[in-house]
Specification:
mainly alpha; elongated
Length: 80
């Protein structure tokens, strides 16, 4: 991973960044990573598997799967 140093940061910007980070429950460093990631169009992914699958399949993507009707449960086998 790369490091970056920001010199001559305005005191007001620094204070607002600190407040924003605290409001989001993050460190200032993590807050800056989030802001920069979004600014360059590559925000960290926090999706779960169901969300990822849903973004690729579903009625809005032309995949409409119908579930077959449920049948009554079978009797368990006997081992006599």
């Amino acid at each position: 991973m790369a490091n970056i140093t920001i010199r001559n940061l305005n005191d007001d910007v620094h204070a607002r960044l600190r407040v924003r980070a605290a409001g989001n429950g993050r460190s200032m460093e993590e807050e800056v990573r989030q802001i920069l990631g979004k600014a360059v169009g590559r925000a960290p992914r926090s999706e779960d598997l169901a969300s990822i699958i849903g973004s690729h399949f579903g009625p809005e993507r032309g995949v409409d799967l119908t579930l077959p009707p449920r049948e009554p449960a079978r009797e368990p086998p006997t081992f006599e």
